[in-house]
Write a structure and sequence with these properties.
The protein is 22% helix and 23% strand. With 258 residues, the protein is α+β, with helices and mostly antiparallel strands. It has 2 domains: 3-56, Roll (Structural Genomics Hypothetical 15.5 Kd Protein In mrcA-pckA Intergenic Region, Chain A); 64-254, Pseudouridine synthase. It contains 8 helices and 15 strands. Strands 7, 8, 9, 10, 11, 12, 13, 14 and 15 form a 9-stranded mixed sheet that branches.
């Protein structure tokens, strides 16, 4: 399918069409090896060789980044006060329409997905999908075995706010560390749930969504692009015990730089 060159470049970069036109006027765009100044020319996005300011621009229908979000960064496209996850992207990795699919509290670290795939985002956020999310929790006081039943039987606040049943388990070698599976993501939910059972969350880190784990080589503030074929793992509902065993086995790799 053919499309206008300026449409292609505006889809694949954060530049507006007027900015692209200026780049073309300055001789900074090439089409199959030739400098081109007319951005209305039709191209085959999958077969053409396009460069912008010396950089090859490759066609991708959508992009998917997994980021290890640091504390103090908000999951938004823009914010007047705080740095956002979009601000952490390199200029060459930004493109029109990219946004965080889902949210993570400002003081929570870990896995967040950035994409421009609106259809996927709808699936992730839809209550019908029931995508599980997994967190490592550092508690102020020791984990109590009664938490397992309390969380599984649905906790509720004095004001009547109820939370869906959740699975929780303690790590063997650390009495203050727990692992939790959630199917919803209300504001400060995990903190509130532990407060309801008489404990307090000190640190919180998301390490998995569906069957897709955060890459252990990532450090806070870093991100990696993943291919579309791996995205379907987000919609898989894995067994809690299997996920827990894998995370516990590689605990030091998932609980770093908090």
């Amino acid at each position: 399918m053919l499309m206008r060159l300026d449409k292609f470049l505006s889809d694949q970069t954060p530049l507006s069409r007027s900015e692209i036109k200026k780049k073309a006027s300055g001789g900074q765009i090439t089409f199959n090896g030739n400098i081109i100044r007319d951005c209305s020319v039709k191209i085959d996005p999958k077969a053409s060789h396009i460069t912008l300011s010396g950089k090859l621009i490759t066609y991708r229908k959508n992009v998917y980044y997994i980021m290890d979000k640091p504390k103090g960064v908000v999951t938004a496209t823009r914010d007047k006060k705080d740095k956002t996850v979009i601000d952490l992207l390199k200029a060459e990795d930004r493109r029109r329409g990219i946004f965080p699919a889902g949210r993570l509290d400002k003081d929570t670290t870990g896995m967040i997905l950035l994409t421009d795939d609106g259809e996927l985002s709808h699936k992730i956020l839809s209550p019908v999908s029931h995508i599980p999310k997994y967190y490592i929790v550092q508690l102020a006081e020791s984990f109590k075995t009664e938490y397992v039943n309390l969380f599984n039987n649905s906790l509720s606040t004095s004001s009547g706010e109820a939370f869906l049943p959740a699975k929780v388990k303690a790590f063997k070698n650390n009495a203050n560390m727990a692992f939790i599976e959630l199917f919803e993501g209300k504001f400060h939910q995990i903190k509130i749930m532990f407060e309801l059972v008489g404990n307090k969350v000190i640190n919180l880190r998301r390490v998995q969504m569906g069957n897709l784990k955060i890459p252990i080589e990532l450090r806070l503030g870093e991100y990696v692009e993943i291919m579309h074929k791996y995205i379907e793992q987000l919609l898989v509902k894995p067994d809690f015990s299997v996920v827990f065993e894998e995370i516990e086995k590689n605990f030091s790799s998932y609980w770093i730089n908090i």
